[in-house]
TrEMBL record:
Organism lineage string: Bacteria, Candidatus Falkowiibacteriota
Xref: Pfam families: TrmB
Domain of life: Bacteria
Xref: Gene3D superfamilies: Winged helix-like DNA-binding domain superfamily/Winged helix DNA-binding domain (1.10.10.10)
Residue span(s) of domain Transcription regulator TrmB N-terminal: 8-70
InterPro entries per the UniProt record, alphabetical: TrmB-like, Tscrpt_reg_TrmB_N, WH-like_DNA-bd_sf
Coiled-coil ranges (or none): none
Identification of the protein by name: Transcription regulator TrmB N-terminal domain-containing protein
Spans through the membrane: none
C-alpha cells in the first residue's frame, strides 16, 4: 500500500511509513520497523511515541526487549475525532477572540476605508475600479486637463469614455487648462476655471460614498477613501466650486 494514502488522512509522511511497517510486521522491536519504513532508528522512536499518543500504536516488553505493534486500522478513525476536537477548541477560542478582533477591524462600517495605489499601474487600476464599481450615476470631478492628457494615453482615455457611456455614467467637471477648453462630450458637463488662480494639481472624483484622489505629477500615487460623510463633504465642496465657476463661463 502506498503510504501517501495515509498522509491524505492526516498522518505525516514518516508517521504513515512507520505505521504501515508496524502493521505489516506485527509486534516487533524498533529496528525492523525502522528498516522497513526506511526511517532513521532514533527518529522512529520519536514517531512511534507520537503514534501511541494518537492511539495508533502500543508498546509491550518481550524478554526484556521493547516491542511495538500497530493498532487495528479501524482505529484510524481516531484521527478524525482528534481533528474534530481540535477544530472545536479552535472555534471556541475564535468566539472569544472575535470581539477583540472586531474592535481592531479597520474596515468596520463606522470607520473610513482607505486604499492606497502607487505607480502608473496602480493609478490606472484605481481608475478602472471606479468604472467597475458604478453605473447609472453622476461622478463629480476636478482636475487639470494638461496633467490628465500627459499621464493617460489617448487610447486609455477613449476606452474609459466608451465604458462610461455604456454604463450610463454622467460627469460634472471643474477643470483647468493652459490653452483652449474641453470639447463637448456626451453625458458630461464642465466648467473651466483660471489656472493661474486655481492651480488644481490632483485628479479628484467623488462617486457614491467614495472619494478618489490621484497625483499625476512627480509622485504617481492615488488614494480612495470610502466613507459616506467624507464623500458628502467633498461633494458639497465641488458643488460650491461649480456655482463659483459660473462667472468664468465664456
Amino acid at each position: 500500500m502506498d503510504y501517501r494514502e495515509l498522509v491524505n488522512l492526516g498522518l505525516s509522511e514518516k508517521e504513515a511509513k512507520v505505521y504501515l511497517a508496524a502493521l505489516e510486521l506485527g509486534k516487533s522491536p524498533v529496528s525492523p520497523i525502522a528498516q522497513k519504513a526506511q526511517v532513521n532508528r532514533a527518529t522512529t522512536y520519536v514517531i512511534i511515541e507520537g503514534l501511541m499518543q494518537k492511539g495508533l500504536m502500543t508498546v509491550s516488553e518481550e524478554e526484556k526487549i521493547q516491542c511495538f505493534a500497530a493498532e487495528s486500522p479501524d482505529k484510524l478513525g481516531l484521527l478524525f475525532r482528534e481533528r474534530e476536537m481540535a477544530i472545536a477548541r479552535q472555534r471556541e477560542y475564535l468566539e472569544k477572540l472575535l470581539p477583540q478582533l472586531r474592535s481592531l477591524d479597520n474596515t468596520s462600517k463606522d470607520k473610513p476605508v482607505v486604499k492606497y495605489y502607487s505607480g502608473r499601474s496602480g493609478v490606472i487600476a484605481m481608475v478602472e475600479s471606479l468604472l467597475d464599481d458604478i453605473k447609472d450615476t453622476t461622478v463629480k470631478m476636478a482636475f487639470s486637463v494638461d496633467a490628465v492628457e500627459n499621464f493617460f494615453t489617448p487610447e486609455e482615455s477613449s476606452r474609459w469614455r466608451k465604458k462610461r457611456l455604456q454604463k450610463n455614467i454622467t460627469t460634472k467637471v471643474i477643470y483647468t487648462m493652459k490653452k483652449g477648453k474641453l470639447s463637448e462630450v456626451e453625458k458630461s458637463r464642465d466648467r473651466k476655471v483660471p489656472l493661474e488662480k486655481y492651480p488644481i494639481k490632483s485628479d479628484i472624483a467623488i462617486y457614491g460614498d467614495k472619494v478618489r484622489i490621484a497625483s499625476l505629477g512627480g509622485r504617481l500615487m492615488g488614494i480612495v477613501i470610502e466613507d459616506r460623510e467624507i464623500a458628502d463633504t467633498f461633494r458639497a465642496i465641488l458643488d460650491l466650486a461649480w456655482e463659483g465657476a459660473e462667472k468664468y463661463r465664456e
